[in-house]
Amino acid sequence: ETGVTQTPRHLVMGMTNKKSLKCEQHLGHNAMYWYKQSAKKPLELMFVYNFKEQTENNSVPSRFSPECPNSSHLFLHLHTLQPEDSALYLCASSLGLAGGGNEQFFGPGTRLTVL
Amino acid sequence: AQSVTQLDSQVPVFEEAPVELRCNYSSSVSVYLFWYVQYPNQGLQLLLKYLSGSTLVKGINGFEAEFNKSQTSFHLRKPSVHISDTAEYFCAVSDPGTDKLIFGTGTRLQVFP
């Protein structure tokens, strides 16, 4: 595998279910990101991890719980979601080194539908 | 806080015609600017970026963009589009020192034969 991979690609869940999204990057990057992409809205940055430490949480509801066990893996644990949480969830990674301006590499996303 | 405006939500164009996708950003201080493309059922892919130096930036697939500080713009251009350029295009901005991006709402480019 190369680049950034995400599993599953599609997920349908009920509001009482618990599920997890997985992201893996094979690029040796130090920063990882979760985004939510809904129709007709800008990409919403949800969480940022640098060197496994969470550096940003953009007021995301607690029903979304991220986990970053190492620099290569990022999870998004989901529980008691609402129908409005249906969206494409994108994972990305970047070098994350001082100076910034580095390209973010995106995975193909997980299409989530909450019934 | 930084913000990015992409005024055109959709741009229809015929094949081999030129196209310009507009992007304006809010900050008056130094910024990094990016254009990403998203093909159907895929993640985003970097087209080009401006960090410093020459204001005309060339990217992949024949695209280029010009940084205009006085107008706080970073418009994307291509002199002759192909059917395969049909996709969603996102402009993004970041502050120097970080990789964090603020995205615009996107412009859907539709190329007709």
Features:
heterodimer, A: mainly beta, seven-stranded mixed β-sheet, B: mainly beta, six-stranded mixed β-sheet, four-stranded antiparallel β-sheet, globular
Explain this structure.
The complex is a heterodimer of chains A (115) and B (113). Helix content of chain A is 0%, strand content 56%. Chain A has strands at residues 4-7, 10-13, 18-25, 31-37, 44-50, 53-57, 64-70, 73-79, 87-94, 105-106, 110-114. Chain A is mainly β and 115 residues long. The mean pLDDT of chain A is 92. The radius of gyration of chain A is 14 Å and the shape is globular. With 113 residues, chain B is mainly beta. Chain B has no helices and twelve strands. Chain B has strands at 4-5, 10-14, 19-21, 24-25, 32-38, 44-50, 56-58, 64-68, 73-78, 87-94, 102-103, 107-112. In chain B, strands 2, 5, 6, 10, 11 and 12 form a six-stranded mixed β-sheet that branches. Chain B has a four-stranded antiparallel β-sheet with strand order 3-9-8-7, with no helix packed on it. In chain B, a hairpin with a 7-residue loop joins strand 10 (87-94) and strand 11. Chain B is globular, with a radius of gyration of 13 Å. In chain B, 36% of the residues are buried. The model of chain B has no long low-confidence stretch (mean pLDDT 93). Classes of the chains: A mainly beta (115), B mainly beta (113). Chains A and B meet through strand 9 of A and strand 5, strand 6 and strand 11 of B.
What is the tally of beta strands of chain B?
12
Give the integer mean of the pLDDT values of chain A: 92
Reading the helices and strands of chain B in chain order gives: EEEEEEEEEEEE
Structural class of chain B: mainly beta
State the oligomer: heterodimer
List segments of chain B where confidence is low: pLDDT < 50 over at least 5 consecutive residues: none
Average pLDDT, all residues of chain B: 93
Number of helices in the DSSP assignment of chain A: 0
Distance between the termini of chain B: 41 Å
